[in-house]
Amino acid sequence: MERAINRQKILLDHLRPTSSSDHNYEAALSASNCMAGDSAAYHRTSAFGDDVVIVAAHRSPLCKAKRGSLKDTFPDDILAPVLKALIEKTNVNPAEVGDIVVGTVLAPGSQRASECRMAAFYAGFPETVPIRTVNRQCSSGLQAVADVAAAIKAGFYDIGIGAGLESMTSNPMAWEGSVNPRVKEIVQAQDCLLPMGITSENVAHRFGVTREEQDQAAVESHRKAAAATAAGKFKDEIIPIHTKIVDPKTGDEKSITVTVDDGIRPNATVADLAKLKPVFKKSGTTTAGNSSQVTDGAGAVLLMKRSVAMRKGMPILGVFRTFAAVGVDPAIMGIGPAVAIPAAVKAAGLELDDIDLFEINEAFASQFVYCRKKLGLDPEKINVNGGAMAIGHPLGATGARCVATLLHEMKRRGKDCRFGVISMCIGTGMGAAAVFERGDSADELCNARKVETHDFLSKDAR
């Protein structure tokens, strides 16, 4: 009997945080086995306290590149306020952050890495906190979050930040230097160089997505984004940016505070969009109106081990469950979410029907409509506050932006919304997806299969 009691004490000591002064958390570490899923396959594969959780997720307003409110703002000045907000709104000691990972796509790698380091200093992080960038094209912001979650899970550190940054004003999409002639030898290698709009046309043609379907999807995106803005739904996630703007005609400079996304068109109609000419192919269906907007913006997500969040008394916004990246044919790269979403959902032990909300990046209406139809998803569950066709698609920041939008909406919906998915297609033919659980749902359901202390004792006695 004594041996059994000692065994249980050792077990609980392993689960208990380093500080034992938090009696509420100590009480939560009763001997229990958390099997919290609605689906039969869903289960936790690690100790409850080892969950990777999100305690804060914020973003800048997203603004039209070249013409919007952030066109004269340095990239590091877009990222810095968002990083600073994570610390100010949570009171986390910035010195405790083990790493900052920033997704970014277009800028020269070394320059953007330096800008991100500068932004961290502007935000008040000490020199001891490292930072790096990651580039997986349009999923870079989500990849950054996944990288931090994996590092926390691996025990490299307990607290980290996954972020994203893109200034498409400063760094337009362009190929620099020459292209290897060898690319002509392999068709799929050639297709990696296709303009993204051509891949959109390929998806529309191959899978029969009509111009009308695409324009309707764009109108719905603007309608929902405008309604969300009017209802104040983005206020909790958007961090105002205090900056300057220069009048291109007079050169006059004035100080402004940017608080809302400036690319949303509340009055967009299918009739208006039908008047726009195809951009990439004369006989095509992809237009400026049914494509994502070229955008400037940033986002950042603060993650930590659940036991640390509980010890610090922080409300948990969400739980990071799984991540999947997949490869697809580069010529139809937009189908990526249709492959990545099932992979991520399966890895979580769930079914598509278990997912309450989806944030699927609207790179192009053609691929968005295809993925929605291919997976048979309920339109009422997808991009309920609009998507990239209205809000914008700052390539490296989109994943982090989607995390903020998804988790704040899940929080608003409460018990009616337990699982959410973020996904996007990726240039050169890939897709990525991640599954999140609402922050407090695990707490509600953790005792679904409670194992009392006497079970441990009786097992050892046997």
UniProtKB/TrEMBL annotation:
UniProt keyword annotations, A-Z: Acyltransferase, Fatty acid metabolism, Lipid metabolism, Peroxisome, Transferase, Transit peptide
SUPFAM superfamilies: Thiolase-like (SSF53901)
Record EC number: 2.3.1.16
PROSITE patterns: THIOLASE_1, THIOLASE_2, THIOLASE_3
CDD domains: thiolase (cd00751)
Record keyword NADP present: no
Record GO terms (molecular function): acetyl-CoA C-acyltransferase activity
GO BP, sorted A to Z: fatty acid beta-oxidation; phenylacetate catabolic process
Compartment annotation: Peroxisome
Segments forming domain Thiolase C-terminal: 316-438
Enzyme class name: transferase
InterPro entries linked: Thiolase (IPR002155), Thiolase-like (IPR016039), Thiolase-like_sf_Thiolase (IPR050215), Thiolase_acyl_enz_int_AS (IPR020615), Thiolase_AS (IPR020610), Thiolase_C (IPR020617), Thiolase_CS (IPR020613), Thiolase_N (IPR020616)
Pfam (any one): Thiolase_C
Domain called Thiolase N-terminal: residue spans: 52-307
Pathway: Lipid metabolism; fatty acid metabolism
NAD found in the keyword field: no
GO cellular-component term (any): peroxisome
Similarity field: Belongs to the thiolase-like superfamily. Thiolase family.
Record-given protein name: acetyl-CoA C-acyltransferase
Highest classification ranks of the organism: Eukaryota, Viridiplantae, Streptophyta, Embryophyta, Tracheophyta
